[in-house]
Specification:
The chain is globular. The N and C termini lie far apart (35 Å). Helices cover 31% and strands 30% of the residues. It has a seven-stranded mixed sheet. Strand 6 and strand 7 form a beta hairpin. It has one domain: Rossmann fold. With 210 residues, the protein is an alpha/beta fold.
Length: 210
């Protein structure tokens, strides 16, 4: 990923109302599907300015919020200080770096980040290792699209995903009880003036207890 791109846009990231609305829908979708409780330790992978993490913070014991953009994390830290939120720990980390402890988390979720990761299968295997037994994984990302969703594709590794293939990959890795649904549909007006819908899926799986 070209981290500098996200550093440059971090200060204005939350100025786009649709991003805030999208994060609200992601929080609600995760709440609906995952049995959250105050003992759970979570990982937010690619947290950005932390809108989803902040939305879930009151429901979880703690959240490790990692991102590869220091400026995104700076925005998050200011928001946490202003709100007095103590159970979110921002962590600067390259998103293809594997240095987190194994079996550390009850929940790992990633929202609109997977399409930036070139070797996402390796990442999913890392997630499996980092989850505790019976831990939950939540993937929220774009369904397959033609490349028109992003205004700048320089950091995009995949133009969305075919849900069936991604579900099969989770099962091959060892995840069980997979489930998917539409989490949100983002409507964007293209440069041509045409309004277009982009479905965003939620896909979950649980780490096997065997």
């Amino acid at each position: 990923m070209q981290v500098n791109y996200f550093d440059k846009i971090a200060s204005s990231w939350d100025d786009v109302p649709e991003r805030i609305e999208m994060a609200r829908h992601f929080v609600s979708a995760i709440e609906d599907i995952i049995p959250l409780d105050s003992d759970m330790q979570a990982l937010d992978f690619g947290c950005g300015t932390g809108n989803v993490a902040i939305g879930l913070s009151a429901l979880l014991k703690n959240i490790t919020a990692i991102d590869s953009s220091s400026e995104m994390l700076n925005v998050l830290e200011k928001k946490l200080a202003k709100a007095g939120i103590k159970n979110i720990s921002p962590l600067l980390l390259e998103l293809d770096e594997d240095c987190l402890q194994k079996e550390s988390f009850d929940l790992i979720y990633t929202c609109m980040t997977l399409h930036h990761i070139t070797d996402f299968e390796r990442l999913l295997r890392n997630f499996y290792n980092q989850l505790k037994s019976s831990g939950h994984l939540v993937l929220i990302d774009l369904e397959k699209e033609d490349g028109s969703f992003h205004d700048n594709n320089s950091t995009v590794a995949h133009h969305g995903f075919e849900l069936g293939k991604l579900n099969g990959m989770l099962e091959d890795i060892g995840f069980s009880d997979t489930y998917s649904r539409t989490a949100y549909t983002r409507v964007k007006t293209l440069p041509s003036g045409i309004a277009r819908e982009y479905p965003i899926f939620l896909l979950t799986g649980m780490k096997s207890t065997v």
